[in-house]
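Saturday, quiet lab. Running sequence design on the structure tokens for the scaffold JK sent over.
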């Protein structure tokens, strides 16, 4: 997790909003959010939106499972060869 207070070498102005929280590895809407308050505690915090307990196929209960499917599939062209010639000396 990163807390950003500046961008491109310039500090955020008050009209630009709060400092930003950037969560590495998270995409889309959750990646960057305006930070309004910071809470510290002994244990981790669970929120309803991102925490769930799921039973796996082996019977174990797992917490925090985010399943991301394939977003882009690259398929070869029917008439074109995908082999690349490597030039060597």
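Result came back. Writing it out in full:
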């Amino acid at each position: 997790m990163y807390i950003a207070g500046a961008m491109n070498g310039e500090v955020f102005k008050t009209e630009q909003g709060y400092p930003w929280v950037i969560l590495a590895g998270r995409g889309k809407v959750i990646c960057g959010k305006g930070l309004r308050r910071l809470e510290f505690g002994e244990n981790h915090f669970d929120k309803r939106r991102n925490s769930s307990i799921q039973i796996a196929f082996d019977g174990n209960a797992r917490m925090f499972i985010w399943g991301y499917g394939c977003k882009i599939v690259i398929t070869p062209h029917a008439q074109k060869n995908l082999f690349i010639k490597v030039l060597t000396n």
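Notes for JK: The chain has a mean pLDDT of 67. The radius of gyration is 22 Å. Ask whether to fix the surface positions before the next round.
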